[in-house]
Design brief:
alpha/beta, three-stranded antiparallel beta sheet, binds ligand FO1, Rossmann fold, 19% strand, 14 strands
Length: 313
């Protein structure tokens, strides 16, 4: 059994790789919901949908989010009416948000809805929201204004400096059913190459999750989302330096040292291995750029085996 902590695009790629090397029914993904947003009266869960669509083989590989072969007639018509169209919801993606919102009105939990959607799309892995309670990521911009995650990420194209991050509701949130159990019982827990601050951070902010991962640190493997000081996609490097963390694989290792015994970094960062091992983690250096499904499976194999090696040691 593999349990993964997952955000959006990078996590989805690695999870698809893992599903290519082990039985998908042996995978549980605990997914960030801090990115969730309500727009047009619809409940949208971007990281859950990105993981679901990718594992279903329906995702748009180039964009990283949303569905392949998508059309945008509704958004274009909405724009013509002067409605909000900055957050692009494709015509077939909208069905997911309509379904989720209807089921929430019927009293279903996000866990139940996520299971219904992923099962109907043929996903055989278990996809769990980190919590069924609302947890919302807010970022304080250097201007002092506080904005929601999607405003920061999409409306402001995440190129505004940030001075603080908080997860509204985290202290009152309860892990979704099965989350703690899947973290305790997995052979290996993998921290996916997602943004450590605003994708993995919200998951760890739900009471009980961080302690459960730390309690089995020996078989926890983290994959760095930062390569040669940069995030392949998104603002992880900038956010880290804006919040006084070193924007490097070593900086990521320091954030995860209390949770994971093994850190996987890219060959471009081989020189950082000694620095990382000084934090008490073992360091695996490999190609972490998942530019093809085969490379994602190679990385997945290293991640699944890496924990075995720390067993061996
Ligand atoms: N990301 C964007 O950069 N622009 C968008 O218009 C956009 C729309 C969108 C719609 C549905 C969805 O599930 C994801 C979407 N994303 C979009 C990605 C979203 O911002 C994610 O939260 C990020 O990928 C970070 O995980």
């Amino acid at each position: 059994m593999i349990t993964a902590l997952a955000g959006g695009v990078g996590a989805a790629r690695l999870l698809a790789g893992i599903a290519g090397v082990i039985d998908p029914t042996e995978i549980t993904a605990i997914i960030n919901t801090g990115d969730d947003v309500t727009l047009h009266g619809l409940h949208i869960s971007p990281d859950i949908d990105t993981v679901t669509y990718t594992l279903a083989g329906l995702g748009d590989a180039e964009r990283g989010w949303g569905l392949a072969q998508e059309t945008w007639h509704v958004m274009d018509a909405l724009a013509r009416l002067g409605g909000q169209a900055w957050f692009r919801l494709g015509d077939t993606d909208l069905a997911t948000h309509l379904y989720r919102t209807q089921r929430i009105h019927e009293g279903a939990t996000l866990s139940q809805i996520t299971h219904e959607i992923s099962s109907s799309l043929g996903v055989r892995s278990s996809l769990l929201p980190m919590s069924d309670d609302p947890v919302k990521t807010y970022l304080t911009l250097a201007s002092g204004e506080e904005v929601g995650f999607q405003d920061y990420f999409v409306r402001f194209h995440h190129d505004v400096p940030v001075s603080a991050i908080r997860f509204e509701g985290a202290s009152r949130a309860v892990p979704s059913p099965g989350v703690i159990e899947s973290l305790s019982s997995a052979d290996t827990v993998i921290v996916c190459p997602s943004n450590p601050l605003v994708s993995i951070g919200p998951i760890l902010s739900v009471p009980g999750i961080s302690d459960t991962v730390a309690a089995r640190r020996d078989s926890v493997v983290a994959v760095s989302p930062i390569i040669a000081g940069r995030a392949l996609k998104g603002p992880a490097d900038r956010l880290m330096s804006e919040l006084s963390h070193e924007p490097s694989a070593a900086g990521v290792a320091r954030l995860y040292a209390h949770l994971a015994a093994t850190m996987i970094i890219d060959v471009a960062d081989a020189a950082l291995a000694d620095d990382i091992e000084a934090t008490g983690m073992s360091c695996v250096v490999t190609d972490t750029v998942m530019s093809t499904p085969d490379k994602a499976m190679e990385l997945a194999k290293r991640a699944v085996d890496a924990s075995g090696s720390s067993h061996a040691a």
